[in-house]
């Protein structure tokens, strides 16, 4: 785990909390954040993937979470 990936995971988690995704799941807001992650090439970080998977599960979109999990080239215990 790199310092950058840890920071990105924390930033994403705080963005989710601010947008209310963890309290009241909103799939559209989560998709916007996922688009941002892809656009700025943060999708190679394990922690970012793990955070996105968690977001999709909390939004009851298990299929998208599974697709992300299957696309991961590396996994850790949290994955």
Task: Characterize the structure shown.
With 79 residues, the chain is an all-alpha fold. It has one domain. Helices cover 67% and strands 0% of the residues. It contains four helices and no strands. The longest helix is centred in the first third of the chain and has 17 residues. The chain starts with a helix and ends in an 8-residue tail after the last helix. The mean pLDDT is 75. It comes from Solanum lycopersicum. One of its GO terms (biological process) is RNA modification. GO terms for molecular function: RNA binding. Keywords: Signal. This is Pentatricopeptide repeat-containing protein.
General shape: globular
- How many helical stretches? 4
Return the domain count.
1
State the helical fraction: 55-70%
Describe the protein's topology.
Layout: H1 3-19, H2 27-39, H3 46-58, H4 62-71
Helix pairs in contact: 1-3, 2-3, 3-4
Task: Offer a quick outline of the entry.
The protein has 79 residues and is mainly alpha-helical. It is 67% helix and 0% strand. It has one domain (3-71).
Which terms would index this structure?
single chain, 79 residues, mainly alpha, 4 helices, 0% strand, TPR-like_helical_dom_sf, RNA binding
């Amino acid at each position: 785990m790199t310092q950058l990936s840890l920071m990105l995971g924390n930033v994403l988690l705080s963005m989710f909390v601010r947008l209310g995704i963890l309290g009241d799941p909103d799939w559209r807001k989560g998709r916007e954040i996922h688009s941002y992650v892809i656009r700025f090439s943060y999708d190679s970080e394990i922690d970012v993937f793990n955070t996105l998977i968690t977001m999709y599960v909390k939004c009851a979109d298990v299929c998208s979470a599974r697709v992300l999990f299957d696309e991961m080239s590396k996994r850790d215990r949290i994955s």
